[in-house]
Amino acid sequence: MSFVSPGFLVFLPAVLALYRLTPWQKRWMVLLPSSYFFYACHSPWLLSLIFLTTLVSYGSALRIERAETRKQKRRAVVLDAVVCLGILFIFKYLDFALGGVFSLLRLFGVESGFTGFHLLLPMGISLYVFQTMSYTFDVYRGTIRAERHLGYYALFVSFFPQLVAGPIERPGDLLPQLKAPNPLEQEDIAQGVRFLVRGYGKKVLISDFLAPFVDTAYGDAASAGGAAMVLATVLFALQIYCDFSGYSDIAVGCARLMGIRLTENFRQPYAAGSIRDFWRRWHISLTRWFTDYLYIPLGGSRRGLFRQCLNILVVFLVSGLWHGANLTFVVWGGLHGVFLTAETLLLGKQQLKSPLGRGLHRAVTLVLVCFAWVFFRASDLSQAVSILQSIFTDFRLSDALTGLGMGRVELILACLLVFLLPLLERLPALSVRENQLRGRYALPLLYFLLIAAIAICRCLVLTEHGATAFIYFQF
C-alpha cells in the first residue's frame, strides 16, 4: 500500500474514524497496528527489522539514562549505533561494498564468480534508522528523557504517514504530540485537506505526467541528443521535486487530520539564491539531521576555514551515500559539497543586495543543481559522463522533443502544469479569512475542482501507465 494506491483511500478514513472514536489515552493502540499494517502491505517479513531497531534503540536509551558513568552511557549509544547502522549496511550497502572489493581484487588478477547477495531493500530503512539514532543521541546528550512506554516509542518509529519517506522527525517534536489529546479542530482539518490536495496535485498531476518523458530520454540517452537530455534533466528536476515534496505534503496532511504537526520538508528550493539556501529548503529534516548529528560533532565551523570545508565535503559525501549504494549518488553528494565549499570560500556569509545580483545567483544555483541531478538520475557514472558529453557536443534543438517521446500537445500540457505549481504551493497558506474576503464558496469550489482534476488524471495514469511509485521509496 502507498499513498497513491486505491486501498489507501479506504485505509486513511478508517484509521481517522477509529482514531477519533478512541479515548485519547488509548489512541496509540489504533495507530501502532495501523502503521504496522501499512508497512506490512509492502513487505510483511521486513517488519522484523522495524521491531529489532525499535527494541534495540528503546533498550539503549533506557540503559543510557540509568548508566552511572559517562563511559557506560557511551557504550550504550555506540552499541545502538553499531546495531542500527549494521542493519542498514547489510541490507543497503553490503553488495555495493563487496562489489568494490572484488573490483579491487580483479586489478591483481583475482577473479570471483560471486555476484552479490541481492537482498531486498526494506522501504524506508534509511529513514527509520536515522530517526531511532536521533532518539538515542538526544537521550545521550540529555536533551530529552528516555520514553518508558514501549507502545508510544514504537509508534514514534513507525508512524505511518512519515514511515517510508519522511520527514525524519525529532523525538522531542513528535513523541509529545503522539501522547497528547489532539482535539478535533477546524483549522487542523482545513490545513490537512490543503496539504493533501497540494501533495496529490504535485504527485499525480505533475510528477507522474513528467515521468514517462524523463524515463524515455534517460533510457536511451545515447541517441536522444544533448538538447533532449538538457530538457529531460530540467523535467527530472521538476519531477523529483513534485514527487518527493508531494509525498511529504501528503504525510503532513494525514498527520494534521489527527492534530499532529510534522515538519514541512520543502520550501520552494528552486527559488534558492545559493547552494546553502537550497539545502535550507530541500529535504529540510535530513539537512537538519546531518547538521546536528554529523557536521557539528565533526567540528562544524569552529575549527577554522579549512576544517569547515572538509566537514562540508564529508557531510555531503555521506549524504550522497545515504541516498543509494551507487557511485552516482556519491558523486551527486560530492558535487554539492564542492559547490557549497566554493561558495563558502568565495562569498563567505555576505548577502547580495542588488536585484540583479540575487537574480544571477538564483540562475547559477539552478544550473548547478540541475547539473548534479544528471548524476543522481543516471544509471551509472558512464551514462552520466556520456550525457554530459552529448550536451556539449551533440546539441540538436530540432530533436529535443523527439528524444523525450514528447509531442507538441504534451509540451503545452507540461508548460500548463508548471504554471499550476505556484497555485498548489500556495494552498496551505490560504486561511479561513480568505473565504470571507473572496466569497464563502470560493475556496471550497477551488478544492473541489483540484480534487476532481486529480481524480481524473489519476484514472488516466492508472489506465495508461499503471501506478507510479514514489521515487524516494528506493532510499
Automatic annotation (TrEMBL):
<feature type="transmembrane region" description="Helical">
    <location>
        <begin position="150"/>
        <end position="168"/>
    </location>
</feature>
<feature type="transmembrane region" description="Helical">
    <location>
        <begin position="445"/>
        <end position="473"/>
    </location>
</feature>
<dbReference type="GO" id="GO:0016746">
    <property type="term" value="F:acyltransferase activity"/>
</dbReference>
<keyword id="KW-0472">Membrane</keyword>
<feature type="transmembrane region" description="Helical">
    <location>
        <begin position="77"/>
        <end position="94"/>
    </location>
</feature>
<protein>
    <submittedName>
        <fullName>MBOAT family protein</fullName>
    </submittedName>
</protein>
<dbReference type="InterPro" id="IPR051085">
    <property type="entry name" value="MB_O-acyltransferase"/>
</dbReference>
<dbReference type="GO" id="GO:0042121">
    <property type="term" value="P:alginic acid biosynthetic process"/>
</dbReference>
<feature type="transmembrane region" description="Helical">
    <location>
        <begin position="36"/>
        <end position="56"/>
    </location>
</feature>
<feature type="transmembrane region" description="Helical">
    <location>
        <begin position="359"/>
        <end position="376"/>
    </location>
</feature>
<keyword id="KW-0012">Acyltransferase</keyword>
<keyword id="KW-0808">Transferase</keyword>
<keyword id="KW-1133">Transmembrane helix</keyword>
<feature type="transmembrane region" description="Helical">
    <location>
        <begin position="305"/>
        <end position="323"/>
    </location>
</feature>
<dbReference type="GO" id="GO:0005886">
    <property type="term" value="C:plasma membrane"/>
</dbReference>
<comment type="similarity">
    <text>Belongs to the membrane-bound acyltransferase family.</text>
</comment>
<keyword id="KW-0812">Transmembrane</keyword>
<dbReference type="InterPro" id="IPR024194">
    <property type="entry name" value="Ac/AlaTfrase_AlgI/DltB"/>
</dbReference>
<feature type="transmembrane region" description="Helical">
    <location>
        <begin position="221"/>
        <end position="241"/>
    </location>
</feature>
<dbReference type="InterPro" id="IPR004299">
    <property type="entry name" value="MBOAT_fam"/>
</dbReference>
<dbReference type="Pfam" id="PF03062">
    <property type="entry name" value="MBOAT"/>
</dbReference>
<feature type="transmembrane region" description="Helical">
    <location>
        <begin position="405"/>
        <end position="424"/>
    </location>
</feature>
<keyword id="KW-1003">Cell membrane</keyword>
<dbReference type="InterPro" id="IPR028362">
    <property type="entry name" value="AlgI"/>
</dbReference>
<feature type="transmembrane region" description="Helical">
    <location>
        <begin position="114"/>
        <end position="130"/>
    </location>
</feature>
